Amino acid sequence: MFKDTRAADDKLFSYFRVFIDDKGVASVTPSSKYLVGRVLKAMDVKRASFIIEYGAADGVVTRKILEKMPAQCKLLAIELNEKFYSDLNKISDPRLIAHHGDVRGVVHIAEQRGLGPADVIVSGIPFAFLSSSGRNDLLADTARLLKPGGRFVGYQVTTHLIHPLHAHFKKVKTEFELRNIPPNFVFTAFK
Questions:
Q1: Which of 110, 123, 138, 183 is deepest in the core (most CB within 10 A)?
Q2: Calpha distance 68→135 (Å, rounded)
Q3: Of 4, 114, 106, 124, the residue nearest 60 (C-alpha)
Q4: What are phi and psi for residue 180, nearest 5 degrees?
Q5: Domain count, the chain
Q6: pLDDT tens readout for residues 71-92
Q7: 6-28: per-residue pLDDT in tens?
């Protein structure tokens, strides 16, 4: 039992060290199972053929997406932080395409890899850290990359995305998950 506890502690402290070292990381801990569950439910990946994940971090959400998505589905997971990308790259699943880079280049990244429109795009990146124009540009690219009827699921600490989402999507649903450090809003925006 001590070994399991120690491994969990090491993982948590490793995540915290990345948070301290990289100002682009918004959370001090990985997403809780409750937040991940809420995000996966909002994503509705059962019939997806292509999913994009912005800011995959160390793969907590990525692994759950891979568990739930169909066998023929592809997942493009984009991570900017080198340590997190290294962790992500250790996931052994042929459906996963891990990419080290900035999500603000997502259109180019998808085109470069020959990947078509996405059924779902999910994001844990801190949109609050982007400029207003950066936020709007990324949301415009996100809407452009989604298939008609596709959805964008973003989980954030604040409600700052509500108005920009309404500018790019026809319908936006907001939920709140208290059982996470810190608590998060989960936004589901439909194209």
A1: 123
A2: 29
A3: 124
A4: -155, 155
A5: 1
A6: 999 999 999 999 999 999 999 9
A7: 554 444 444 344 433 434 444 44
Any bridge partners for residue 190, and if so which? 151, 171
Q: 152 vs 11, 50, 115, CA distance in Å? A: 29, 13, 17
Q: Tokens for 186?
A: 């989960």
pLDDT tens by residue, 60-71: 999 999 999 999
> Is the pTM of the predicted complex or chain greater than 0.85?
yes
What's the CA angle centered on 17, arms 13 and 22, to 5 degrees? Answer: 150
Task: Report the C-alpha gap between 45 and 135 in whole angstroms.
Answer: 25
Q: What is the CATH number of the domain that holds 128?
A: 3.40.50.150
Q: Which domain holds residue 124?
A: 2-190
How does 111-145 read in b/e, with b if 16+ C-beta sit within 10 Å? eeeeeeebbbbbbbbbbeebeeeebeebbebbbeb
